[in-house]
Write a structure and sequence with these properties.
Layout: H1 3-22, H2 31-40, H3 47-57, H4 61-74
Length: 75
């Protein structure tokens, strides 16, 4: 799979995730939330870093998408 195809696939996953998050209640961070985002982040992204992003952006799908895109740009 090319990097472009991989990024396209992750983009579609981000869109689906954004739709799920927009209807989810904001509260404590669950391992399920971290797992969802881990699949979208570059390899080697720590769970602690993902938890910090979730806490910082409080489930705002657009801001999370932007943060994850920045992680990919730095990868």
């Amino acid at each position: 799979m090319s990097k472009r195809d991989y990024n396209m696939q992750k983009g579609l996953q981000m869109k689906r995730l954004g739709e799920q998050i927009s209807s989810a209640p904001v509260g404590g961070i669950t391992s399920g939330e971290v797992t969802k985002y881990r699949e979208l982040c570059p390899p080697g992204t720590s769970d602690n870093q993902i938890q910090k992003l979730i806490s910082q952006y409080k489930g705002d799908a657009q801001r999370m998408e932007n943060a994850i895109n920045e992680l990919w740009e730095d990868y």
